[in-house]
Design goal:
Helix content is about 30%, strand content about 30%. It is built from ten helices and 15 strands. Helix 2 (about 10-20) crosses helix 3 (about 20-30).
């Protein structure tokens, strides 16, 4: 589409390398970028052999999907058949770039992303996003925070920019996901786009850097302005109920709306709408709403996110036969 419109973009083969996780892993290995051991499989037997070779726990994931669709951690061999079925179903959903399934080394440690901007082959890491995950053994992202003063940017930024270079990216915005392991930051994947879940907005609130504007400038061949104009923190919490079912009530304490640090409250599910938690549901159907806050630093942002969540009410009529989730939520 970009080529048709006559704006700058990378070759589709480069972008495919970002979208296809098997190709990405091969490129990371070729360029000595710290990543995870990964084996493409086409059967349950191959999955079992790959898992034994890598060593449990492992992660099964579709090679061409996004949003953690079909991604699951497997701790022991007895769990593998069900996990392989889950990953295969995710790989075959509409929208994926391939039907391949990968068995990968599990990277233990906190998950982050580094938001990067590439102009004429030079990549700048502009911010680190710290992530909250839930619904184990799945990898549902439930919240994000950005602190302009995060010291991780100096440590993880060079690895993220190396991953972008390894894939041959010369222009655009990259959302690079990593795990902070005992051996240092290691790459999960490179997404050649602005991060979802309002991460671009968090970067702007925390640093003043406007990623959508940067993307537009890059498309027109203009060097983007990446000068920070703010030095604070921002966070988003995605609101999940405790149980799948029908939304029968939702609301927020009016007194909270006067807080100058409350940047946004948005509803995703309407009253009468259905909410389906993982593993049956994904990000498109599991969330009721979201809340965004600003703060002086990450600690204050976390406290304000919790305060905001404590003043939000969501009532669900449970789907018959569905157990209550143990992940926490609002009710």
């Amino acid at each position: 589409m970009a080529q048709h419109l006559g704006v700058l973009t990378d070759d589709p083969q480069v972008l495919h390398a970002c979208r296809d996780k098997a190709t990405s892993r091969a490129q990371f290995a070729r360029h000595c970028v710290p990543s995870a051991q990964s084996i493409k499989v086409v059967s349950l037997l191959e999955s079992a052999l790959a898992a034994e070779s890598i060593g449990y726990p492992v992660v099964l994931k579709p090679a061409g999907q996004a949003g953690s669709v079909g991604v699951i951690r497997v701790d022991k061999a007895e769990e593998l058949p069900e996990a392989y079925e889950f990953a295969t179903a995710g790989a075959n959903l509409h929208g994926g770039d391939s039907n391949d399934v990968l068995v990968e080394e599990y990277l233990d440690g906190p998950e982050i992303s580094v938001e990067c901007v590439t102009h004429q082959g030079q990549t700048t890491a502009v911010a680190v996003t710290r992530k909250e995950l839930g619904f184990e053994p799945y990898f549902e992202e439930t919240g994000h925070s950005v602190d302009a003063a995060d010291p991780l940017l100096a440590e993880a930024g060079p690895i993220a920019t190396a991953a972008v270079a390894a894939l041959g990216v010369t222009t655009g915005i990259s959302h690079v996901e990593l795990r902070l392991t005992a051996t240092g930051p290691r790459i999960i994947e490179v997404n050649q786009r602005i991060g979802g879940d309002l991460i671009g907005r968090l970067v702007q609130l925390a640093t003043g850097i406007d990623l959508p504007r940067a993307a537009a400038d890059l498309a027109l061949g203009i060097a983007p302005d990446l000068t920070p104009t703010r030095r604070q923190a921002a966070a988003v919490r995605l609101l999940y109920p405790d149980v799948s079912g029908t939304v029968i009530e939702r609301g927020i304490d009016p007194n909270l709306l006067d807080a100058d640090w409350l940047a946004q409250v948005s509803w995703i599910s309407e009253v009468g709408g259905q909410v389906v938690l993982p593993p049956e549901g994904d990000v498109d159907v599991a969330r009721v709403g979201l809340v965004v806050v600003t703060a002086a630093d990450a600690a204050q942002a976390a406290a304000r996110i919790q305060e905001a969540q404590d003043h939000i009410t969501v009532v669900i009529r449970p789907t018959p036969g569905k157990p209550v989730s143990s992940t926490g939520g609002q009710d």
